[in-house]
Amino acid sequence: MRAPPLALHVARAAALLWSAAVVLTASGSSLAQERTQAAPGPGDTQVVIKGTRVRPRVPPKDRSVAGSMIQGARLAAPGKKAAELLRGEPGVSVAETGGQGALATASIRGATSAQTPVYLAGVRLNDDVAGSADLSLIPLWLIQRVEVYRGHAPLEADQLGIGGAVFFEPKRPRKLEIGAGGQVGSFGSRGAWAWGSHGNDASGLLVGASWDRARNDYPYTDDRGTRFESSDDVGRRRTNADARTVEGWAVGTASTLGEGRVDVVINAVSREQGLPGLALIPTQAARARSSRVLGAVSASVPCDDRASCLVRMTSSALLAGSTLLDPLRELGLSATRADLYGRRVDQSASVRVDLGDSVTLVPSLRASVERLLVDADGAASVRASRGVSRGAMAGEWRASRRWTFRALGSGECQGTSLGGLSLCSRVSGAGRAGAELSLGALSLLGNVGHYERVPTLAELYGLAGAVRGNSSLTPEQGNTGELGARVSWGGHGAVNGAYADVFAFARTAADLIAWRRSAAGYVRPYNVSSARVLGVELLASAGFGGFLDVELSATMLDPRDTSGSRTVQNDILPFRSRLTASPSARLHTDAWAGAGVDEASLEARYTHQSSRYADSAGLVVIAAQGSLDLESSVTTLDKHLTVRARLSDALDQARYDIIGYPLLGRTWFGAMELSW
Amino acid sequence: MVGKRARMLASIPNRARAAGSTDIAPMMQSRTRAGAYAQKLLRIALPWAVRLMAAATWLACNVPEPDAASGGVHLPATACGRGVVILESDYASTNVALASFDGAVVSGSFISSGSRHPGLSMALSGDVVTPRERPLSGSVVLLDRYPNAVVTWVDPESAIVQAQLSVATGFASNPHDYIELGDGRAYVSRYETNPAPGREAWDDGGDLLIVNLAPAAIEGRIALSRPDDGVLLPRPDRMLRAGGHVWVLLQRFDASFSRAGDARIAGVDAARDRVDWVVDLPGVASCGGIELSASGARVAVVCSGTFGEGAAQSDRSGVVLLDATVSPPVETRRFDAAAVLGAPLAPAVGFLDDNHVLGVAYGDLVAGRADNLYAIDLVSGAIEQVHAAGQAFVLGDIRCSAACGGPCLVADAELGGLWSWRLDGGAALQSAALPVSDAVGLPPRGLGGF
Q1: What's the whole-model pTM score?
Q2: Residue B122 and residue A492: Cβ atoms within 8 Å?
Q3: Taking 60 as the threshold, does the pLDDT of residue A40 lie above it?
């Protein structure tokens, strides 16, 4: 069946948006009038400005670099996966392989997912087996905000990686509150969660647990491998793709020693799922069990009374394990069972020192030890470990009212070994320098940096019979520079404010690790290639009339393979769209309180990705694709009850990121949450 | 005006407001200037940014489509067929070129992975081989092994795909070879055995699938497993016709490829679609190369040994010579080329003439050993390395047309071309490097006939 032309999709999307606008415009108009009225008062300074201003989405850990932040209602949309949330963010590329629970990875500015560290509650999730973080293991229900640092990672990251960093930060307890909710959706999606918190600005505790499952038996067209012969195409449903996940959170915070603070975060997740494999040859019995426990304790203590010095210490641990069961050998692992265990312990300490009004220094030390165990039937066990120690210094010099200069440098020592533990066998450096020119509402930013990525343990030592290591690999190296502007405007008349963030960047990478298949059938990594990526990123938003917010996120990439050994004519890097654009419109109102509706909103977001290659030779073109998502929420009973609905891929456009792994089409979700 | 001033005041931090009007005034002026800057910038820059983005979107959003195919060829028919099929691949995608027997490329991109947009699968995956034996129908036949498991027939003159047939039957059957029988049928050897059969017709695997050519359809199978297999699977690989039978090489690995039995050849009577005989080759394993001499009297079988055995792999690697004039065939001589060359042998093999065989020995990525090309004098037994490649796993298939006086062509991925080898009158080897078309630039690895 042929997909409808893009024009038809756009027309349908416009019709849906228009219908939504008609529903909310009447109340929105009255609200707008209310918000522009000056409240009666004794003088001008008593004027009350109501309404929501459009706020810049600048991530807080480091405002001097290109980045964006997601928070609020977008995180609460039912059935929304972390990968779906990041798709369309400036600079971010996402690769999904299926429905709920299916492997999904993210990468930034044309980097690889192994070059892009992903953090949950400050703990890096990228394992050292493949180097990638699985976004499907990041449930969003207790996440406060997502921070994306596109070119340069903040000091809080344990890897100052080539591909920036993504942080998922959990909610913090602020008040006495309990809540519970449930969710239903297409393809057997069900979920339930409950949480309770107690606390205030000084201290608090939040605990929560969630359960969800999905059959993921969504339809797709099976072309049976015969692309030249469409008469044998058949419609099928995904099989053996079900997933069940249980997750628990505990977040505690307490004030101590005056201005000091201690934070504790524990997250545990366990999943059992089918591994459906390629849809062309779906599996019947391949299953996986995975679990992960992470915990972090951080303490901040001021070292003087003037708050000009702050010591921060963080300890974290990550325990992760997964078992692959493949009794029918459908996954091509050459084993019927494989067990992978990883554990990492990390300790860091930093001191923030203000030297007068104009200079701030943050020296820091970090040390971590990671161990990896891989046992597979019929293959030699892998016992590998890595020790990393790092000294870093970040500095900021506010040279004048307009000019601020920042720098970050780090020296790192890594030791990787099979069997034993090597704490330091290789020294590397990373760093960046940047400047910011503030012209009131306008800021101009520029940064340059150099980074490295150490090969993963799998790249060095292999995994199983078919994946062989190469212990002579050297780290990937990357240089990046960016120039950007941020401008915000408070608004006037019916405009509630506007914000724009534009960055242009260039990145070169050398000694990139690529996998080569040998004629004998196994793969082995090499330092073979180099790449150059140029790009422009835009994030702009504006609010109108107090009831409509619009936003445009767009990324243009020019990713090129610059390897001297390249033989193919094509030099455009595969799996990277040269344009990703994500416009959205959100209608919201709190003018229906008289009718018992405290807040209501409707959001439409269309994410478009231009075509991309799926191979280095540039022969296989994944066509341009897009998805329209509709989200709505109604809060009532004095904001104690929230009902949410979401229609994902409303136009049912066929999509895939990796050939052979079709993604969910049109999918609906509904959720209800009660909090008190 | 009042409203604007009020909003400005509301946006001033409390501390500043508390400091009094004398401090507020310059701050307000500064804010006003900043706001004016911002508004001016938005007024000027935003329309240009929108125009720029729109233009860039229009010009550069999608990646260029691959170049159009170079089309079919008209080459004269000979006793050896019309020409040579060159498979270029990086194991991610595939381009197919056509060449004359002397290696001159006549169609640089006859068909490729880019000939159709992908859907659930690619038009051609990165794992495509051609039949060892030239199809009698005259079509260019491609076997898309994993994951597609598809046979594709292409008209060499028009480059139009005549038919496609999935031979997956519900599992990754991994077809390894195809041989036309001359009666409107063909056999397809399926390397994998289905661990959970019974859901579709003919879904057992580890067999020869009997395929009707017009219309393309599966009409039966010939099981190749034997009662004495134990944990070993038949894993049928390459085939040839000799002495009135279709010979099928059985690699006999277990499911995890950690164990391999002695190599075995099954002789199939194509008239009755049944196995008439089996011949075991004790002491050698993983035999993937089989070639018939121009006279039809000799068959050379090349065995690689078991990869999982490390250095001991070479112990079960070698070249076995069989007498094809008797049925079942009889082993006449064995050449321990792996021991002489210090490397296990790749399955590529060809007859330079009835008394000389050309083959490839594997390199080793870890040891830094490169592939090399060897020649065996079947009369004297002399084994000689005749060419060293630049690295491991770059030498691919060998395709000889000695029966028509043509050379042996050897695919070299590192060279990005072919080597042409032939014997001069005095049995001395001569070689020449031949470029292949750089239309796509994928390295040549496989060779077939049409």
Answers
A1: 0.87
A2: no
A3: no
